[in-house]
Amino acid sequence: MPWKPPRPRPATATGPASPGHPCRPTCSPPGNAPPALEKRLSETLGEQAWRESGLGTPADTDALNQKITHLEQQAIDLRLQLEEQGEELAAARAANRDLMSQLNHANRAR
After folding, report:
1. Residue 15's beta-bridge partner residues?
2. What pTM was estimated for this model as a whole?
3. In which domain, by residue range, is 101 found?
């Protein structure tokens, strides 16, 4: 015997027919939800879709902000270290020039 869809139930005096949901007098017809409830549901579903899409703000923004602060401080420290090494290199080059100049003068005196 082939499958047949269930027959719709007839509407009753208490409300329209709905498969799987017996209507009670307290049920409101579809589309008559309070605006505040619709707005809250819409916002909740929108936020959920935003998070699931990966486009939203990460949940661990505090950890990311701490990481940014740490990396910024590390960059400052590395710049200072580079500046100090540059100064040391300039001093070593000046000392090397002086020593080479002294060595050249000593060789001419012989």
Report:
1. 12
2. 0.42
3. 62-110
- Give per-residue pLDDT as tens, 20-61: 555 555 555 556 668 888 999 999 998 888 878 877 666 678
Cα–Cα separations (whole angstroms), residue 82 to 76, 77, 79, 88, 90:
10, 9, 5, 10, 12
Residue 97 φ/ψ, nearest 5 degrees: -60, -45
- The gap from C-alpha 93 to its chain's centroid, in whole angstroms, comes to 48
The count of domains in the chain is 1
User: What would the DSSP string read from start to end of the chain?
Assistant: ----PPPPPPPBTTB---TT----TTPPPTT---HHHHHHHHHHHHHHHHHHHT-S--TTHHHHHHHHHHHHHHHHHHHHHHHHHHHHHHHHHHHHHHHHHHHHHHHHH-
In a domain, 83, yes or no: yes
